[in-house]
Design a protein that fits this description.
Elements: H1 9-19, H2 22-29, H3 36-46, E1 48-50, E2 65-67, E3 70-72, E4 76-81, H4 91-101, E5 106-108, H5 116-122, E6 127-131, H6 137-149, E7 154-158, H7 168-173, H8 183-190, H9 193-201, H10 224-231, H11 238-248, E8 252-257, H12 260-268, E9 273-276, H13 290-301, E10 306-310, H14 316-325, E11 329-332, H15 334-366, E12 379-381
Parallel strand pairs: 4-5, 4-11, 5-6, 6-7, 7-8, 8-9, 9-10, 10-11
Antiparallel strand pairs: 1-12, 2-3
Helix pairs in contact: 1-15, 4-15, 12-13, 14-15
Bound molecules: flavin mononucleotide.
Flavin mononucleotide binds near residues 27, 82, 111 and 334.
């Protein structure tokens, strides 16, 4: 299969599956428990239909949006995701450059495999730094400072990983960071020689945001679930979130808000935005999908804070549905991660191009020249 034959997220997923050793593919693809929430994140969009208007003169359409003070040329951005050099040896460098080409925001994880300084120097387009609140306060403060010094525009504090989700595929495959060599992982590396060559012969694996303070994840193999449970601070509360916001003192968002009550508290502590998200179904299985929950949250706080709908996005129409309900933008992880694994920067560019052209075509078919023409009149729930 070739990149030019990747017309949609399913095609990229199939290509990623062939390129990656099993434990790495299943780390991306998998979710918590029975993966019900992960499936619902996408299926929620299918319970709702778009109602187009016609004869609207749509020879040119404008899909730009401004979210948390950042102008994005398209209303879908790349959510922060961990460990990208395991998926392709260019890792975050590839995603950063692809996102910059499309004028959209790139979210860099605390568990990124390229430094904030390098990403900050590489791209001038909007950048989000995703913060994990560690027990080691020195590390947490150090990351905030590094993000600021590297000119990141938005800080997103992730609030849905207070303990590790039960990712059973990772338990089965024994996936850790860095990958541990076991008999079964060795077999799967041997069956994927191109990946294995790139992993062992190129730049050594590391987590540069963490290595100044902790060895786990870089030098000591640990599962991501264990990392959350043992390294992150389970006493984190609203006062801590507010202190992070004050320390950062630029656009600030909470990632992983699902209830109306919490959305209101996000407004109270002065957040600029919230990402309505269940971490791609990787944490609390059986929790509600972002799109199912979006209207309640927009109705409560949409006039006070920017609401982003994160997760489950596989088509341009999903983006238009979330924007019709009142999200300012959408974001996602797997839609670009499969593409990164499939073909590096060229893959992520193709994934973004597919999404951009779907959004453009769908706007025309909906009779919308700009995103503010979308509203709930365009939607009917079944
Ligand atoms: C492989 C992978 C790694 C992730 N790593 C992080 C992370 O380090 N920090 C974070 O806040 N969210 C992380 N996420 C969650 C994403 O930011 C996003 O919420 C999720 O991918 C959205 O669901 P989608 O993949 O269906 O788009 C990760 C998701 C995946 C798939």
């Amino acid at each position: 299969m070739r990149l030019r034959h990747c017309h949609n997220v399913k095609d990229f997923r199939a290509m990623a599956r062939r390129r990656l050793p099993g434990p790495i593919f299943h780390y991306i693809d998998g979710a918590a428990d029975d993966e019900i929430t992960n499936r619902r994140n996408t299926e929620a969009y299918e319970d709702c239909d778009l109602v187009p208007n016609v004869l609207a003169g749509v020879e040119t359409v404008d899909m730009a949006t401004t979210v948390m003070g950042q102008r994005l040329e398209m209303p879908l951005f790349c959510s922060p995701t961990a460990l990208q050099r395991l998926f392709h040896h260019h890792g975050e460098r590839a995603v950063a450059k692809a996102a910059a080409k499309f004028g959209t925001m790139f979210g860099v994880s605390s568990l990124a495999t390229v430094s904030l300084e390098e990403i900050g120097a590489a791209i001038k387009t909007p950048k989000m730094f995703q913060l994990y609140f560690h027990k080691d306060r020195g590390l947490t403060d150090n990351m905030i400072e590094r993000g600021r010094a590297a000119n990141f525009d938005v800080l997103a504090l992730t609030v849905d990983t207070i303990t590790g989700g039960n990712r059973e595929r990772d338990l089965i495959t024994g996936f850790t960071s860095p990958p541990r060599l076991t008999l079964s992982s060795a077999v799967s590396f041997a069956l994927h020689p191109a990946w294995t060559f790139n992993y062992f012969a190129r730049e050594p694996f590391s987590l540069p945001q963490l290595t100044t303070h902790v060895k786990e994840g870089s030098n000591v193999a640990i599962s991501v679930g264990e990392y959350f449970s043992s390294m992150l601070d389970q006493s984190m509360n609203w006062r801590d979130a507010e202190r992070v916001r004050v320390k950062w003192d630029k656009p600030f968002c909470l990632k992983g808000i699902m209830s109306v009550a919490d959305a209101r508290r996000a407004v109270d502590i002065g957040a600029t935005g919230i990402m309505v998200s269940n971490h791609g179904g990787r944490q609390l299985d059986g929790s509600r999908a972002p799109f199912d929950q979006l209207a309640e949250i927009v109705d409560a706080v949409g006039d006070k804070i920017d609401v982003i709908c994160d997760g489950g996005i596989r088509r341009g129409t999903h983006v238009l549905k979330a924007l019709s309900v009142g999200a300012k933008a959408c974001s996602g992880g797997r839609f670009y991660l499969y593409a990164l694994a499939a073909a590096g920067q060229a893959g992520v560019e193709k994934a973004l191009e597919n999404m951009r052209s779907e959004i453009e075509r769908d706007m025309k078919l909906m009779g919308c020249r700009s995103l503010d023409a979308l509203n709930r009149e365009n939607l009917r729930f079944r």
